[in-house]
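Aim 2, interim progress. The first record below pairs a target sequence with its structure tokens.
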Amino acid sequence: MLSQAQRATILELHGQGVGKREIARLLKVSRQSVRQVLRANSSAVPQIERAEKATPFRQQILELLPQCKGNLVRVHEELLSAGATFSYQALTAFCRREGIGQAPVVPAGRYEFSPGQETQHDTSPHEVLLGGRKCQAQTASATLCYSRLLFFEILPTFQRFDCKVFLTDAARYMDGTTERVMIDNTHVVVLRGSGRAMEPVPEMAAFAERLGFRFVAHEIGDANRSARVERPFHFIENNFLAGRTFVDWQDLNHQARQWCDRVNATYKKHIRAVPRELYAVERPLLKPLPAWLPEVYRLHHRLVDVEGYVSLHTNRYSVPPSFIGRQVEVRETRDHVEIELDARHIVRHRRIATPDQVRVTLPEHRPPRGQGPCKRDPHPEETALLAAAPEIASYVENLKRRGRKVIALLLRQLLRMLRDYPREAFLGAIEEADRYGLYDLDRVERMILRRVTREYFRLEDSDD
């Protein structure tokens, strides 16, 4: 079909006296088309008026579409069974022209951001090769909307603690914060509501206030609102993660930081600029960070087990033996785990990022094999016994090992016997008990009484 411009050209050439054959040759159209245009004597493209085969079935199509859950293939099958004779292509063309079962096409928009106005933050799952093993991880990314400065980290999990750690690192990398941070209604930040009605968790709201920004969320289904941060995820997966291996999480994020520095200094065709150069314009308009930015931490309370370890996320961290059975405060930061008994007794471990059931033991918390713990001070009763009767030292040592009562009670009873009975009878009975391996102090006391003669308990005569 000839366009309106071609029709106008044909009429103009005919008015100049050019023949029909020559017009057809010049415009490379058929002479019949030239005749039809001259016969109509109008440059307007005529409307095609013909009945569509699906028009009589319009009402049936509207009724069948929700029953078939919007599947036009099933609608066509039902119409054929009802006597329709048109093709599936005719059905889809009719529905497309009539706007049946199709959302109206809306033109795409464009978001413009001024310097220091907004940062967009989002996460995406990725698979990384860590220490020769594939691991599922979460890539957290933040982008300055004006300069497109990119910062990302890859973490094993992404909870509120990880979110605060990441946003703190991003603020340090960007050397400031914007007025707002756009999120995608994630439960890590959102307490209730969505979009403009979103209310952040008080913990996250206080964190944002300390850094000088506020959280906002886009409407559900409006993913284009956060396109500044969504676009780099494909680049990260197919450029940074492609063919790279990492020793551990620390090595991974160290390489990610170097990659961000290199990418931010590279010319981008879609913005026709270098992000670092645009950042130089945006940097003075960012909100400065506080003079002191505290380290993000998670607080736990634990009871030290009988082996001298504290359990945290299935991993176990050693403490000195004096901590056993006592309640401690565990402070978990990004890189370390601090176990505090009191202000003077603090143990510091390197944090294990994943719950791998690892046991971390510091050398100073476990003595070398065969050395054992330091000996305790002797009981006061033992000191008094050895000071008064050094001859019974071997018997006292064997009594502590083989006695059937509490050691303190045994030593206390033996000291009483030494003080109550004559020394000769006491030492003789102890010597005999040591020779025969007798450590029942009740029997030893009866042996002492048998050795005591009448002269030790002489009664004075009474006057009858």
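The second target in this work package is listed in the same format:
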Amino acid sequence: MGAIGAQTKPRTILVVGDSLSAEYGLARGTGWVALLEQRLAVEKINATVHNASISGDTTAGGRARLAALLASVRPTQVVIELGGNDALRGLPLQTTEDNLRAMVQAAQKAGASVLLVGMQVPPNYGRDYAERFSSTFAKVAKGEKTGLVPFLLKGVADAPDPVKLFQPDRIHPKAEAHPTLLNNVWPQLKKLLM
């Protein structure tokens, strides 16, 4: 048995996300997706990363462009990091869930394993909505048998002094927080790469 890096078959990881994955407000190469590429190299995992994240994207936007991405990139793994902008725009939770489920199913049908990256909303949205929103990701992941990162911003948004980890808009993490984002994603993604 060889180590994971001994694989001969290359992996192609497609990341479909929003500004949190698109390096919004950051110097290129400092976001968690760029750090993922570095981690793969260090761990000697034969994989390339295609970052198709777009700032402001919603689950509807991701769903609309996923088929073309699957056809052109032909990923072995798909990381879906969408939903935060749905909440910010007040879109119905059922719509978000339906879009996430359709994206997962399309990726699986294309032969890719899927990692769903969850998000939480600030408490000012109300406890009921916040709980239902965050549970949407777990519900889809369980129903479609995908990997799940419960909360991309764990250790950042819930840090003792989170303000210092965010850009002035208090929505987008600073570059120094992105290693934490990668550390939240990596254990679950690594399972899919083995």
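The first strand starts at residue 11 and ends at 17. This observation will shape the mutagenesis plan for the next reporting period.
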